[in-house]
Amino acid sequence: MNSNRVKRKKIVINDQDIISTKEVGRLFKKFRESIDKDQHELASELNNSQGSISRIESGFCKPKLGYLHYLYKKYRLNINWLLSGKGEMFILEGRQILVKDKKYIELIKLMQMPGIELLILAKLAETKIILKENIENYKKNEN
Fold this sequence. Notes:
Layout: H1 21-34, H2 39-45, H3 50-57, H4 65-75, H5 79-84, H6 105-111, H7 116-142
Helix pairs in contact: 2-3
């Protein structure tokens, strides 16, 4: 037996978990936009036409298995999320993910820890109130 064999995790998706082709297309577009690519760029990366990406995003067809494998390997796209709408868009463990602004990766990881999300959201709400007050005061003083 070959000791260098890699164990692969199977993705199990129940039939009742699979969403409509139109919804898969909407999620596919959301993913594409999150990696800051237009249809032409992603199509080129997948060695396909812009029209094929458009058909996926319009809900006429689902992405091919080869595309899904590539997008998982390169971007850590969560295939379960794409096909069922459940879970997070990206699989975070073990690799850095690509987002529009890489400085927020740590924040994204922190947000997935129990309790931390509420703390961060509370701090953001507090900051929003303070900034709003500061802007209002600035506008008053400017006049």
